[in-house]
Design brief:
- The protein has about 475 residues and is mainly α.
- It folds into 3 domains: about 25-75, no CATH class; about 90-180, no CATH class; about 215-405, no CATH class.
- It is about 40% helix and about 0% strand.
- It has helices at about 5-10, 15-40, 50-60, 90-100, 115-120, 150-155, 160, 190-195, 235-245, 245-250, 255-260, 270-275, 280-290, 295, 335, 340, 350, 355-365, 380, 410, 420-430, 430-435, 445-470, and strands spanning about 385, 395.
- A two-stranded antiparallel ribbon has the order 1-2.
- A hairpin with a 5-residue loop joins strand 1 (about 385) and strand 2.
- Helix 2 packs across helix 3 (about 50-60).
- The structure holds heme C (10 copies).
Length: about 475
Amino acid sequence: MRSTTDQTKPRISFITPFTVQLLCWLVMTVVVVGLFFWSATANYSNLSSTLLGTTKALLLPGQTSHGHYQIELACNACHTANMGVKQDACLSCHQEELKLARDTHPAKKFDDPGNAARLKVLDAQKCITCHREHVPEHTHPMGLSLPTDYCYHCHQGVMTERPSHADFAFNSCATAGCHNYHDNRALYENFLQKHVGEMDVVDNPHVREPDRATLSPDVALSAADQDAPEPHRAEGRLLHDWAQTLHARAGVNCQACHVADKQSGWQDAVSHHTCAKCHAGEVAGWLQGHHGMRVARDLPPMTPAEARLPMKPARAHEQLDCSSCHGGHRFDTQYAAAEACMTCHNDAHTLAWKHSSHAELWTRAGAGQGAPGTGVACATCHLPRCENESGKVVVQHNQNDNLRPNEKMIRSVCMQCHGIAFSIDSLADANLVKACFAGRSQTQIKSVEMVREWFETKAKKRANRKAKTGGS
Ligand code: HEC
Ligand code: HEC
Ligand code: HEC
Ligand code: HEC
Ligand code: HEC
Ligand code: HEC
Ligand code: HEC
Ligand code: HEC
Ligand code: HEC
Ligand code: HEC
C-alpha cells in the first residue's frame, strides 16, 4: 500500500522519466544479450533445463518450421555463437538422405563457372536461399521460403526445347507429381518410360515380409526359464506375453533387457539404448524421424502434448520411445502397425483409414483370409519394409523418410501393388490423401503420357534418319 507521505517526498531531480527509461533500457539490453549468448551456446542437458529452454524459446524471432520445431531448442545445431547459420549445418543432418535421393541439384552441380550468372540471381549453393527459418509468414511446406516460379531462372530453355511444355507456367513445374527440386527418383523420364502402361493394381499385389534371423530351436525359452531375480520375477499376463514372443523363441531372457550392466542391476525401465544392442538399424531410423528426433539431440523425449498435429488426449503426456508402439511384453507388430498409431494420432487422414479399401485388405490379411503382405496399414506406408545395406528386408523406423515430398512413397511403397500413373495421380490429389485413399483420384497428371509421346517422337525421328541413310 502506498502511503500519502510518499507523494510529498522531494523528488531527486536527476531521475527524470527519460533517465529511468535509459537505465531500464541499458539493464534490459545487458540481460538480454547476456542470456542470448549464454543460452545459445550452453548445453541443454547440463544446466537448469527449464529456465534455459524458456529463455531460448524467448529468443526465437518467430515460429520454427514444421520440420524443425521439435528440435528448435538445440540452437547450436544450426547456429554459431553469434547467431549466424553454421556453414555446414543443414548438410550435417541431411547430406545422407539427399545423396540417397540422388539429389537433382546438389551444390556441387553449380561449381562449374558457367553457372556464375545463374547463381547471381539465385544462389543455389546455399540451402538458406530457399529454406529459411523462424519466418512463418514467408515459409510454405518443407520450410520453403521462395516464390514458386523460381525454376524459371535456370530453365527458360525448356519452353522452346519441349513443345509439350510451351503452355506451362513456371509455377507449375514443381506441383505435385511433375518435378521435384531434389528427389526425382520416381519422376525421371527414363524411369517413367519403363513403367508406361502399367495396370492400376498389379497382379498379386503384396509387400515383402521382413527378413528374420534364423532361430535355432535349441535357444527357445519358456515361462519356466525366466531369469528375473526376486522380487522382479513375473507371473500371469507379463510372463505369458513374453513367453509367446520371438524374443523368448530367440533366447532373449528378462535380464537381456532389464539389466543394462552389472553395476546398475535390475531396472524396470528399458531405454532404446538397450534395444539398440540387438536392433541398431531400427533405433537409428527412429532417431532420424519425428518420433525420435528430440532424443537424438539430447533434448527430453517428445510427448504428444507438444505436437502441432492433432493428438488424442489420453496419451498426451507419455514420452515417445520404442514402447510407444511395442508396449507391454508382446512386441506385437500387427498391433504396432495400425492400432498403436491411432492411440495417439487424431487427424482427419488417420481417422479416415478405417474406411479405406486398404484397411479392409489389412483386416482380411490379419484374419488369415488374405495372404501375408496383402494388407495396407499405417506402417505399410509410413514404416515401410525396405532393404538395408546388407540386402536384408527390415522395417524403416524413420517415418519421415518417405513422407515429403510424397512422391517418395511411390517407389518404396505403392509400386509394389499399383502402376506408376495410378500412384502419381493418387498422391497428387490432396483431398484423397486426406481421405486416406478411400476413393479414386480426381487429379490427372499427364507426365507419364507426355513421356510416352516424347519417346515415340524420338523413336520416329531416329527411324526416319535411318531410312534416309539407307538403314545402316
Ligand atoms: C534447424 C536449424 C535451426 C535451429 C535449430 C535454430 N535456428 Fe535460428 N535460424 C535458422 C535459419 C536457417 C535462419 C535464417 C537465416 C537467414 O535467413 O539468413 C535462422 C535465423 C535466426 C535468427 C535471425 C538471425 C538473423 O540474422 O536474421 C535468430 C535470432 C535465430 N535464428 C535464433 C535462434 C534461436 C535462439 C534458436 C534456438 C532457440 C534457433 N534460432 C534455432 C536455423 C535454425
Ligand atoms: C540437427 C539436425 C538438423 C539440422 C542441423 C537441420 N535439420 Fe532439417 N530436419 C531435421 C529433422 C530430424 C527433420 C524431420 C525429419 C525429416 O523430415 O526428415 C528435418 C526436416 C527438414 C525438412 C523437411 C520439412 C518437412 O516439412 O517435411 C527440410 C526441408 C529441412 N529439414 C531442411 C533443413 C535445412 C535447410 C537446414 C539448414 C538450415 C536443416 N534442415 C538443418 C534435422 C536437421
Ligand atoms: C533452389 C532452391 C533450393 C535450394 C538451394 C535447396 N533446396 Fe531443399 N528443397 C527445395 C524444394 C523446392 C523442396 C521441396 C521438394 C522438392 O521439390 O524437392 C525442398 C525440399 C527439401 C527437403 C525435404 C525432403 C526432400 O528430400 O526433398 C530437404 C531435407 C531439403 N530440401 C534440404 C536441403 C538442403 C540441406 C539444402 C542445401 C544443401 C537445400 N535443401 C537447398 C528447394 C531448395
Ligand atoms: C540455380 C539454377 C537452377 C534452378 C533454380 C533449377 N535448376 Fe534444374 N537444373 C539446373 C542445372 C544446372 C541442371 C543440370 C543441367 C541440365 O540438365 O540442364 C538441372 C537439371 C534439372 C533436371 C534434369 C535432371 C536430370 O538429370 O534429368 C530437372 C528435371 C530439373 N533441373 C528441374 C528443375 C525444377 C523443377 C526446378 C524448380 C523447382 C529447377 N530445376 C530449378 C539448374 C537449376
Ligand atoms: C525385449 C526386451 C524385454 C524383455 C525380454 C523383457 N522385458 Fe520387461 N520391460 C521391457 C520394456 C520395454 C518395459 C517398459 C514397458 C512399457 O513401458 O510399456 C518393461 C517393463 C517391465 C516391468 C515393469 C512393469 C511393467 O509391466 O511395465 C517389469 C516388472 C518387467 N518388465 C519384467 C520382465 C520380466 C520378468 C521379463 C522376463 C520374463 C521381462 N520383463 C522381459 C522390455 C523387456
Ligand atoms: C539381446 C538381444 C535383444 C534385445 C536387447 C532386444 N531384442 Fe528385440 N529381438 C531380438 C531377436 C533375436 C528377435 C527375433 C529375430 C529377428 O527378428 O531377427 C527380436 C525381435 C523383435 C521384434 C519383432 C517381433 C515380432 O514378433 O515380429 C520386435 C518388435 C523387437 N524385437 C523389439 C525390441 C525392442 C523394442 C527392444 C527394446 C525394448 C528389443 N527388441 C530388445 C533380440 C533382442
Ligand atoms: C511408430 C510405431 C513404432 C515405434 C515407435 C517403434 N516401432 Fe518397431 N515396428 C513398428 C511396426 C509397425 C513394425 C512392423 C512393421 C511390419 O511388419 O511391416 C515394427 C517392427 C520392428 C522390428 C522387427 C522388424 C524388423 O526387422 O525391423 C523390430 C526389431 C523393431 N520394430 C524394433 C523397434 C525399436 C528398437 C524401436 C525403438 C527405437 C521401435 N521398434 C520403435 C512400429 C514401431
Ligand atoms: C505415443 C504417441 C504416438 C504413437 C503411438 C505414434 N505416433 Fe506418430 N507422432 C507422434 C507425435 C507426438 C508426432 C510429432 C507430431 C508433431 O510434431 O506435430 C508424430 C509424428 C508422426 C509423423 C510425422 C508427421 C509429419 O508431418 O512430419 C508420422 C508420419 C507419424 N507420426 C506416423 C505414425 C505412425 C504410422 C504410427 C504407428 C505405426 C505412429 N505415428 C505412432 C506420436 C505418436
Ligand atoms: C496408402 C498409404 C498411407 C496409409 C495407409 C496411411 N498414410 Fe498417412 N500419409 C500418407 C501420405 C501420402 C501422406 C501425406 C504426405 C504429404 O503429402 O504431406 C500421409 C500423411 C500422414 C501424416 C502427416 C500429416 C500431416 O498433416 O503432416 C500422419 C501423421 C499420418 N499420415 C499418419 C497415418 C496413420 C496414423 C495412418 C493409419 C491410421 C496412416 N497415416 C495411413 C500415406 C498413407
Ligand atoms: C499391399 C499392396 C498395396 C499397397 C502397398 C498400396 N495399395 Fe493401394 N490398393 C491395393 C489394392 C489391392 C487396392 C484395390 C482394392 C479394391 O479394389 O478393393 C488398392 C486401392 C487403392 C485405391 C483406390 C481405393 C478405392 O476406394 O477405390 C487408391 C487410391 C490406392 N490404393 C492408392 C495407393 C497409394 C497412393 C499407395 C502408396 C502410398 C498404395 N495404394 C499402396 C493395394 C495396395
